[in-house]
């Protein structure tokens, strides 16, 4: 385990005036699991895209097995034994597993006919080596996300990868799948494959990696032996300051039922049932966490509460008042705010200035508009106040929102929504894609809102987030709430099982 | 992003240069003297006050249809229907201008408002179809163009409106005319006065009319609506990101209809000012006249702001006018200016190309240092 297989020397990559990688050097040993840790935009993905030939470095050298190589494109990277599994899988949904795997390297008979049986055999052999078998004839659209990821890994191995780069591999997986994924990675490593994982999840690094390289703002911070480092230390190195993981919450005060959903039935955008007799009750001064695997009705739940989707049957009440199927503008007036799931699609108009985004719902109301005319001074003043209060960087009201980092974009949304002084906040995946520092910020904001006696519905795919923040937890599966519990009694294993549709009594 | 408008300007400049080069190539292939042709074109733009006046007259409808297409574009809609809205505006103005005979101070605004109102409704149909039946506005506006086309041809031939023994309508009343000093310039006093002021006389020989003022006011109107009002805020929000606008409580469907209403009004104003200032009547159309389609090119070259279409409209008008002179002077096909326009639009639609070229130049410069 001591031979260095990949060596990156003084890699620098500029995008215009932006320095994505600043003189980074990194060496990776054969057979190790090496984690690349850093906040969003720290330059981890850029560095790996350089190794995989997708991006050419401005300066710097790459050595493979001690020999200097120049990797101009991904085909060359593959022929050098480097494979990469992207965060978003590059699979063709309507093709079978085998067809996807052989894509670009089809073996053929007589140079004409596709020889799939031979490939199928090879695939079965590869997949059997490190874990549960994959059915080579299944269509991609028919298999689970975890299985799809395995297909991507097999694909890399089928193309004789010795070095496997995995970009945020667990972002889309369920807790059970993550566990399975961990086993696969360990097995691959024991078979002598070298694995590089790009991530910002500290827990996984502790669980999986041998060594970890921390990158901050394009610069190398440190490479550490994971076994001798704590999560706190890793976070400190990544962010450059101490990070809080746990929050001390006072017990909820003034508990009053504020929102109730009764037997909600709703369809998803394809017209299939998404919510099936779902009922929820939300109280003031508490955070109710909705735990569940992606695609079990969470998006639809958020949409019916923000007026973006009509329900088929059931009843939604706020303080006893019927608010079923009200428009977004109407629910806004009822003091229900939300942090949308997809901030760039729903939450922000990226081509608008920060100031304009701050008045998305209130642009037609005084003081921002008088007699139909926008009041520029008021709009700017409002924006600057929020920017200061929520520490949006850079602190410019007239800068384009698209120029902000993900964390700062999220701050703009949170600032705007909280400025409406809502009674109820629907927070959907509020920390998705954010780095540790920004996550901490968002969590603090939610806790602060709770302390003011507001009600928060937290819908998240991150179980840790749900358990850390919530007072009560409801588990959603297949459009129904399958369990309610107090957060103090919550047990990750138990919730994970319920999320996957299991039963506690079985 | 202070850079972007500068980049847009340079890209437009490069596109125009490319258009001139390709136009020259076409002339060359046709065996015509390139330098001489361009000299004729240049002279026919600026050498006489009369030419400038003609260019202004020619540009007026292009500016308005350009604004129409640009306005809809800000709300994320592609208004192919400026042509039909132009026809509806022209037809309404011709009808109202013929049948109404009031004092000019009453007649002119009334005819204009009627034309703008009806063409706004015409544009609004496409907006409603899009909002409530998800009919794509490109499809519906193309259909509406043909509907307007045949509607005009039908109305022109109606007894009472048709000028007897012709394929055109009766002319509008003089009280509905937008042409400057129309009576005076042919009166004795006017002729006498103009003889002493040859430059103005030359200028007024063209049908100079109030349309250009209406076009400029329309541009100001567009700017104010888009950037100074909460309506404009919501229209732009829908244009940039309809999902976020919907989430923000903006009634997306309603805004799309509003946007198409305004776009229709703008293109209708083009048709109205054309009838009231230049043509006086409408005639049987054998084919589309192309004012609306040219508006698409104007909006593409000028960008979707409020001021770009003015410059692009004047530019397009100048090219069109000088192109017609090209034919007279050199027997060169005036179509060459459409090839030039086409090339310019083609290149403005490829801003990335110019980004790459300017990067290359920057790199060279950095290298030289």
Summarize the structure.
Chain A has 506 residues and is α/β, with parallel strands linked by helices. Chain A has three domains: 4-239, P-loop containing nucleotide triphosphate hydrolases (Rossmann fold, 3-Layer(aba) Sandwich); 247-335 and 422-506, P-loop containing nucleotide triphosphate hydrolases (Rossmann fold, 3-Layer(aba) Sandwich), CATH 3.40.50; 344-420, no CATH class.
Walk me through the structure.
The complex is a heterodimer of chains A (506) and B (369). Chain A is of the alpha/beta class. Chain A has three domains: 4-239, Rossmann fold (3-Layer(aba) Sandwich), CATH 3.40.50.300; 247-335 and 422-506, Rossmann fold (3-Layer(aba) Sandwich), CATH 3.40.50; 344-420, no CATH class. Helices cover 32% and strands 27% of the residues of chain A. Chain A contains 17 helices and 24 strands. Chain A has a six-stranded mixed beta sheet with strand order 6-9-10-3-11-12, sandwiched between helices. In chain A, strands 18-21-22-15-23-24 form a six-stranded mixed beta sheet, sandwiched between helices. In chain A, strands 2-1-4-5 form a four-stranded antiparallel beta sheet, with helices on one face. In chain A, helix 15 links the parallel strand 21 and strand 22 (455-460). In chain A, helix 14 runs parallel beside helix 15. The mean pLDDT of chain A is 88. Chain B is mostly helical and 369 residues long. Chain B has a domain at 62-309. Chain B contains 16 helices and no strands. The longest helix of chain B is centred in the N-terminal third of the chain and has 30 residues, at 104-133. Chain B starts with a helix and ends with a helix. The relative contact order of chain B is 0.21.
Strand content of chain A: 25-35%
Helix residue percentage of chain A: 25-40%
Q: How would you state the average pLDDT of chain A, rounded? A: 88
Largest interface: A-B, 30 and 22 residues
How much helical structure, as a percent, in the residues of chain B?
over 70%
Largest sheet of chain A: 6 strands, mixed
Mean pLDDT of chain B: 89
